[in-house]
Amino acid sequence: MRKLTTLLIAAIICVVLVLYMFFFQVSFDERAVITTFAKAERPVYAEDGVTIVEANSLIIEPGIRPKLPWPIQKVYRYPTKVQLLEQELSQLQTADENSIVLKTYVTWRISDPYQFFVALQNVEQAKDRIGTQMQDLKGEFSNYRFDQMVNTDLDALALDEIESTITELLRQRIIDLDYGIDIEQVGIRRILFPEATTEKVFERMRSTRQRLAASAEQEGENQATAIRSEAERVKGQILSFANAEAERIKAEGIREGTKNYSLFAENPELAIFLSKVDTLKKTLPGSTLILDANAMQFMDLLITPESDASQEGGDE
């Protein structure tokens, strides 16, 4: 029984080895190039240069495929997904002679697996070539000022322009080298400052804040002066209107007084009666008192003796 189990396990191992030697699998996110005696046959394209008429050594469909064992045939698999290459920190100088430390990245993908195999064969070598080209292009950062890379004003930043410019330059270089690679994007991952640059940045920030504070203070003083001027103007208008209205009311009172004086001069008894009624209103506020007109004679009692004496003296 033990011998049978051993034979069964050995048979399974042999089958797996045979399958591994004579078959290979290509995933849905891969393309493969199969070589025969280390040589690969170029695929045949249609007139548009994109459509593949005969794949030959290029495998573009996923699935399990047969092959001859090594060293007769060998399979090179290449991913179709976008890949990321991050570079080390490097110190550069800007156009206004400030030092900065940049960490950049490149996203790329294999667009032509056959040409990639012919030019580079493996992904690691591709990363080395892309990194070398990217290192040569870092001098483009020196065409921009420090404030175009670091600024609190988003409109003054030129990072998008810098990234787009270097992306196009790197893309064109890779096309000229015919690596079978497409460059998707070059970006800035991080910006750092050496100590000397940091001190300059802080000093510039302080100067900027002081300038902004002075500008805000001046603006406040200008607004306060304008508000005071407007208040004085409105005050003058209100006083002018109030004085004119007071003069009008005064003139109206004089006219009314003149008319009443003429009326009372014609009928002095009516004037005396109205004066007595007005006196009652002032001496009895909030009261209602109904009197006969003849009963108003008691008001004569309010006349002081001094007044009577003066009248008698006058009569004599």
Automatic annotation (TrEMBL):
It is found in: Membrane. The keyword Secreted does not apply. Keywords: Hydrolase, Membrane, Protease, Transmembrane, Transmembrane helix. The chain crosses the membrane at residues 7-28. Its main location: membrane. Belongs to the band 7/mec-2 family. HflC subfamily. HflC and HflK could regulate a protease. This is Protein HflC. It comes from Algisphaera agarilytica.
